[in-house]
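Input chain follows. Return structure tokens only.
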Amino acid sequence: MFRLRRYRVFLAFAVITVIALYNFRTSSSSWTEKAVHHVAPGKSEDVDSPHIKWEPTPQVALESKKLEIDIPAAKTPRPKQTPPPIKPVSRPVDKLPEIKTSVEVETPAAKPTPNAVPPFHGIPGRPANGSAQTDDAAPSSIPAVHWQKPREKFPVPTESLIRLPTGKPKPLPKIQFDFKKESPSQKQDRESKLDVIRNVAKRSWKGYREHAWLKDELSPVSGNFRDPFAGWGATLVDSLDTLWIMGLKEEFDEAAKAVDKIDFTTTARADIPLFETTIRYLGGLLAAYDVSGKKYKNLLDKAIELAEVLISAFDTPNRMPETYYYWRPSFSENNHRASNRVVLAEIGSLSVEFTRLAQLTGEDKWYDAVARITDNLAEFQDKTRLPGMWPTYLDASGCKRVDWMAELNKPLQKPLPPNDPEVVVDDSENPAAMTPTPTEGEELSPGGKKYIPLDLPAPVVLTPNGINPTWTPPVEEPLVWPGPGGSSGLQKRQLDVEDSEAPLAEATPTPVEAALPTPTTDELDPIETHPVCEEQGFAWSSDYGSEEYTLGGMSDSTYEYLPKEYILLGGLVPKYKTMYEKSVEVVKKHLIFRPMLPNGEDILMSGKLFVPSAENSTKVGDLQPENAHLTCFAGGMFAMGAKLFDRPDDLEIAKKLTEGCIWSYNMTGTGIMPEVFDAVACEDREHCTWNETLYNEVLDPRAEQRLEYYEEAMKAYESNMASASAWYADQLKAVETSAPSPTRPAGADAMDTMSETLARPTPTFDVLDKRRKRQLTDPEEEQDIPEPVVPDPNERPVPKKAPAHVAQHAEEKSSIPKETPTYNMSPSKDSVDGESEEAEVNTPTRVQDPLGEEVPLPSKTLPTFPEVYSPKAPLSHKDYVQNRIQEERLPIGVAKIQSRGYILRPEAIESVWYLYRITGNPYYRQAGWAMFEAVNTATAAEHGNSAIDDVTKTSPTLQDEMESFWMAETLKYFYLLFAEEDVVSLDQWVLNTEAHPLRRPS
């Protein structure tokens, strides 16, 4: 039988549950409807979704009265309007010098006019509308900026061009040795070495072809690439003639056709390095055109295309080039000058390439560009601080600044007649003559000078209306800003703008100007103009500091091109011979030195000379006896000059210079010469014996000074120790001296008085605090701690038994080391009574803390001995030298290695090849092969050959860099050393500084 009372609770719960479920279902369905109908604008509902079911939204009671606001303007229909286009502000071109700041962008759709302003593309990495750029936005959407031929500002008239020499070349002396026919064994050995060198080149070319095609340089370790030379495929162009010479004709054909894909009118780089681009790109294209028998016409076409870009850098007032040409139209269309601090090699090493281009095209403008540089070098050669050579930096701007403000500030001195009574003669020997005698009615100032009365102004007469009838308003020119329709009166004056003579157009007078009286030409004060520059040729870059003269970096190829340009011009321009002979005489006298070596090797090196600005009568300058890898080309240059200009003594110097670089290769563990190192120069080239004492002094020049510093430091140390010891003894004596004992007063009341006045030792808060922090008791137990018991000064304190919990804790920390016992400095009873005073003075006592333990009393603090640092004994002279040799891995005879790396440079093997071709000595083939094996072993990488960090290491680290001259020069010279001698004969070809062979005119 069902009993309602028993189950009433369950029934009530069931009813509540049903009601709750019904309400929850209703609310969830309404939220679902709202979620379904909340669709983003412009997007349709997804009616096919199986998870969303559409249901009608239940009606909701709204307000019955509608809110209405009468706005007449809102009811009037208006057509949609677009804002008018913004008109650019037009400026008359003929009124001001033309300076364009826009960037012309060439697109396939249209090519803008020279003065058109391109649309704004926004900041790189951000769209033009200012919104955030998405990750999938293509950066190539911004069109590339292309170079456009600018209007020439300083053109050379056709009649003023320096013409390329014409006529039959002069017969020049034979340079190359007359080789005999080799034996079969010699040929086999030579060809086997050629195959090894060719295979190394093929591996490097394959790595470039697969990982860096049409890029500048390959990263041979990682397989990446670099673009340091404008991204125009420097390695590809630089390697063209090498591929042809090595017989890799298929690789050459593919690379020559790929040259057409290079666009010399655009680059990601803001500037174009004129020197590097000329020797690598222009020289590489011309040499490939020559060695291939002029069959690839596109190579010459691309050379002309590139030269048109480079010749724009010569558009300056003195036609001297900007060595770093900013090619973008927004900058290149302005007027420019060459720099007043130009690297010598960058401006003096353009002649060979531009001359050969002029010979191939028949256009004189290419030769004119470099011939003007030669003229300036020739004029400046005898005016330098080291006549005959040029400094590494020079001023090529052609502008000597004129300080005309100083001239204007000078006081005008008008000569007076000698009998003028107002003339005061400064005669120090006759002071009486300096004081003029006053005449009647004259007065003298305190200094003896005559007073000159001033003319008073005319009296001012005012009319009744307060205006002076004699005053007339001045005529002033109104200051009106120039606009599109005209210009102000200020613009009627001719402006003197540097490098521009554009006349200013007359403007239509404004109403304000027309209302005023127009001044005549005589009434206008013309603006006084002053010259900014005084024309000059090459000059010193700075009048202060020392100048550097060297055959090494920043100078090398300027001297190298003098005999080579003479050969290329067929000997028709004798100035190149004159300039070369002047320079080598100075080099032999001031730069070439013999290094002091333990085995007495008779070799030479070319150093660096620093010439100060002030004249020194004792010596010309300071020679730094260094040997740089870049200087190793000098042996080949001296050898060529010796044969070309009949200078037999120079050939001996060439041999010794080349041998100096061969020795530099053999002196290291890797068999490779470092980038730069210092040696010890001998005073005499003919007689130079090894002096170990001198060598050690060079390695340790401050041995005596270091010893003097140590002796002075020891004296100071001993003095400081004596002072510190005396001070410490005084402080210790003061601490150990006991405090004076109070005298016991006589009488019965004396003891009571003393007991009240004597200090009672109390525990310090620090000790109590430490003890309580280590306690494990409850806070309630701490409330029962008795008050501190102050001991009677007349009785010796006796420790009491501590509570149980304290004793237990004391046992737990018994293993903890106790603090050092201290001395109680308070007078004891016996000392007060005068009994056993000596026995109780140093007796340790303790004071009982309120918890029952003995607590150490505050004690005397012993003084701290002052810190006195003792100097470290220096190494002996012998130990210092040995340590430096070991730590720096110095070969004996080397004083310092300035730069330890090797970046695959070719200069040493270049001179070895020249000496072999000129002397015919097979020794140079042996030396060259040893150099090749050492270089290939230390630099071989997975995809080619890499620069290394330190040639003195047993296992140097690869730097993952392969310069384009590895294929263009280094491997080419190694290959030519073992190729047949008629391949690139020195009597038929001229090699530029990048080893690109150019055909000599016949």
